[in-house]
Write a structure and sequence with these properties.
The structure is a single chain. With 140 residues, the chain is an alpha+beta fold. It has a single domain, classed as Glutaredoxin. It contains 7 helices and 4 strands, in the order ααβααβαββαα. The protein has a 4-stranded mixed beta sheet with strand order 2-1-3-4, with helices on both faces. A hairpin with a 5-residue loop joins strand 3 and strand 4. The relative contact order is 0.17.
């Protein structure tokens, strides 16, 4: 019983994003279409850890991500195939896949909560079909 009490909290506990595996998200997206958000990270990446602490732990953003997309955490040291497939040159990189599984938006480097929230809206509301990310993100 003591071991259960000392076990780490599951992903998504305390308001953070409950990350899925890549294959799991792809299967869920086939069954109930939603965009997939791929967050490429590495254990040694300071900015990745900062995004985990300051951005993806935000309950409001995490809730939106859970309801509107399938969030996937990709450790590039464990998933070189995905790193190559999506041509990841640096971490952190966040890629938003549309309902057809095609990249709709790629953000490189640290993104704050506001930027991630806008990016999520850009893809989930279909704005990526009508305008560029630059035009969308510069709107008030």
């Amino acid at each position: 019983m003591a071991l259960l009490l000392l076990a780490p909290a599951p992903a998504g506990a305390e308001g953070g994003v409950a990350w899925l595996g890549y294959e799991q998200a792809a299967e869920l997206a086939r069954q109930a279409p939603r965009p997939i958000v791929l967050f490429f990270s590495a254990p040694w990446c300071y900015l990745c850890k900062k995004m985990q602490r300051q951005v993806f732990s935000d309950p409001e953003l995490a809730g939106r991500m859970q309801k509107q997309s399938y969030p996937v955490l990709v450790d590039v040291t464990q998933e070189p195939r995905l790193m190559e497939l999506y041509e990841i040159k640096q971490v952190p990189t966040t890629i938003f896949l549309d309902l057809n599984g095609n990249p709709a938006l790629r953000l490189t480097g640290y993104q704050n909560r506001a930027a991630m929230g806008r990016a999520l809206m850009f893809v989930t509301k279909g704005h990526h079909h009508r305008m560029s990310w630059e035009a969308f993100s510069s709107q008030p």
